[in-house]
Specification:
- This protein has a two-stranded antiparallel ribbon.
- Strand 1 and strand 2 form a beta hairpin.
- It has a domain of about 60 residues.
- It is mainly alpha-helical and about 140 residues long.
- It comes from Micromonospora coxensis.
- This is Phage integrase family protein.
- GO terms for molecular function: DNA binding.
- InterPro entries: DNA_brk_join_enz, Integrase-like_cat_sf, Integrase_catalytic.
Amino acid sequence: MSRRLAEHAKRYPPVDITLPWGTSTGEPRTVPLYLTTPAGTALSRTAFNSGVWKRAIRATGVPDNRHNGMHVLRHTYASVLLDAGESVKALSAYLGHSDPGFTLRIYTHLLPASEDRTRRAIDHAFADDPQTPDGLETA
């Protein structure tokens, strides 16, 4: 758990909630809910967007438009994970996409450029390193 989440949980203890997992008829699963209403109930996306996100946007003077909407958080999450090297398949599952191909089509422009990584891999493979065996076992 990150330091910031731990601090939030200390100040606003999470509420355990049990819901069907994966689908509306999925196996019930209990998880801690970290964002709740003042009454301790689940905070809906709509309530968060209008009651928290948009108020914060307006307070900072950032334009309140679709480019700064709450959905941007989803794209920020995806781009941070891709930049850190997370796989498209895993990201697809995290975002709830049924097809990693869909995720790839949406986020392919955010994937780190691979030219440098490719050059480093080939340089490493052909490095003059006497410690590395140079026989069939390396193939």
